[in-house]
Each structure stands twice: as C-alpha cells, then as structure tokens.
Amino acid sequence: MCRAERFGQGERRPAGRGTTLATRLASGLQIARDSPKLQSMVQVTQEQGVTVVVPGPSYDGLRYRELEEFGEALLSEASQASPPRFVIDMSGTDFIGSSFIELLVRAWKRIKNRNGTMALCAVHPFCREILRLARLDSIWPIYETRSDAVSGV
Hints:
It is a single chain. The protein is of the alpha/beta class. It has one domain: 2-Layer Sandwich (Transcription Regulator spoIIAA), CATH 3.30.750. The chain has helices spanning about 5, 20-25, 30-35, 35-40, 65-80, 100-115, 125-135, 145-150, and strands spanning about 40-45, 50-55, 85-90, 115-120, 140-145. A five-stranded mixed sheet has the order 1-2-3-4-5. α5 (about 65-80) packs parallel to α6 (about 100-115). The radius of gyration is 15 Å and the shape is globular. The chain starts with a helix and ends with a helix.
C-alpha cells in the first residue's frame, strides 16, 4: 500500500482549502504552472499531436489530497486531449499503488470513449511487474522510450 492510500477516504481537508482545482482554473494544465506542489507532481506537453503526461517523482510520497489533485489534472487532460492520443511517461515514478492504477484506468476510459489511444512509457521494472500481474499490460502498450510511445500512438 502506498502512503497516499494510507491516509484514505476519511482524511479531513484543512479549513480554507475548499476550492477545487476546477474552481481555481479555467483550463487544462495551467494547474501545474500555478501550483508549486502540482508542478512537481505532473508535467504535460504536446509532442507530434500526442499529449504526454509525466507524473512527478514525488508520487510515492503523496498524501491523499495531492493524489486527488493529480487525478483531477490527469483526468482533465484525458477529457480534453485533442486529438485523443495520450502517453503517460512514468520515468519519474518508481512505485505505484491501487489509487494510481485507478487513475490510469479512469484516464484510459475517457480516452477510449473518444476513440483515442493511450500508452505508457519508461515504466520502472517494479511498476511494470505490478501492471503485468494486474494484466493491464495487455490493455495499454508499454514502450521503453517516450519517442517510441509517441510514434506508437
């Protein structure tokens, strides 16, 4: 179980932090530019018409609140990516838990519903094994490099 899951659903939000990311922002990943925490958590770029999302290296130390914000950013991008071609570069992630996997599945469903494609790249061996055991490697292609993934989708 990752630390983000340990805090669980019962965590109370601090007073004064009731605004959602959607309320604070008008569009997409300005989130990462406006919030120092999220800036270290996620980076989004466009490469050859493909949306590339890079979760930051701080994932395995995230608390529930930060994981929730990362999820909002990821799912927003999955809903808005145009064209709906999506690559998640996991080069900075060396541990994933069930909450992170759930976010990947939810992003994939949004892309799939728009007749798009999604792939993963630069997956750490431990994470790759988790994806293999969950048989998710049969749903998403996993590429060694970002350039291979961008070309593949």
